[in-house]
Amino acid sequence: MDYRARIRRIRANLEQERLDALAITHLPNIHYLCGFTGSSGVLVITERDAVLFTDGRYTQQAHEEVRSARIKIGRKAALVTAAEWIARRSALLRVGVEAAYFTVASQESLRKVLPRSTRLVDATALLVQLRMIKDTEEIARLRSACHLGVKLFDTILETLRPGATEAEVAGALEFEARKAGAEQMSFPTIVAAGARSALPHGRASREAIPARGFVVCDFGVILAGYCSDMTRTVHVGRAKTEAWRVYEAVHGAQQAALDAVKPGVVVGEVDSAARKLLKKKGLAKFFTHSTGHGVGLEIHEAPRIAANQKEMLQLGMVVTIEPGVYIPGKFGVRIEDTVVVTETGHEVLTPCSKQLMTL
Ligand code: ZN
Ligand code: ZN
After folding, report:
1. What is the pLDDT of residue 90?
2. Which of the four, 40, 156, 161, 242, has the lowest number of CB atoms within 10 Å?
3. Residue 116: which residues within 8 A CB-CB, separation 6 or more?
4. 24: CA distance to ligand 2 center in Å?
5. Ligand 1 centroid to 237 CA: how many Å?
6. Which bound ligand lies closest to the C-alpha atom of 220?
7. What's the gap in Å between 143 CA and the centre of ligand 1?
8. Which residues does the chain have with pLDDT short of 70?
9. For residue 244, how far is its CA from the centre of ligand 2 (angstroms)?
10. Are 134 and 318 in contact (CB under 8 A)?
């Protein structure tokens, strides 16, 4: 990863936003800008300098991971060490902070150290905008993570059977993910069977898979720092007509949204492409979440693909397309792919059959 180029891009933005310094506290953003993956740190970028503040637990790790910034190991909390460093430099009057990730307590500890003349400015959007467009190496890593996810779906198919618990299926999947090199899962694995499939975020529980019904499987791995995300819904036992009808409607809606993905399209239109199709089938009221989200170092990134969102799809964005229908007390269906926006449209990073599978 070319971390130096990313810091250069930040510097160009500092000037534009009339900021003397940017104090990055959101850990994935620190990772993005200098490669540091520790759990405590603040990265301060000024016109001429870039300094990562962390503590003694990370001395070795920081020196191994970080090339694009100087490293300062402090005895106090990283935020206090960073604030003291800023306070000693009287030219740093306007300091950008990430208000969206900043607690009231953090702000108070900063204010205690910084001189009154220092102004804190919300610069959350800066990194959100930068990270939204993935470079070639990021896309390669996302592709690898997603392809691993697709391979792991086979483990689900092997372990999923009536009587097995949702947790057993998720556990087998997670064990295989680890063996294949995944650092961790992108989020708690969802295996939601029978009536539980109507819970959009039904984390794998100790409930057994019933003899008949849908099973929503939504899972992702983190490989080389990047997240994968995909959902497939399978059916245990013979599916009734209503189940088929709903599955085909969700499948159609997902395809309609996918077909809309290309550079220049407003994300709200992608969302409405899916919603329109479900409306025709009388199912729109059961589609209770947004159509998708960006994926990268974090599982949920910009842009959010939802009704009336104005962000425009651009080359290099990586997003999920995941409409679902959830009929309370009965069942739910969701189908999700992760795609990268290409010049002509998109590439599906999670190629895997979407025909209704009955097990
Ligand atoms: Zn998902
Ligand atoms: Zn998702």
Report:
1. 87
2. 242
3. none
4. 26
5. 24
6. 1
7. 15
8. none
9. 23
10. yes
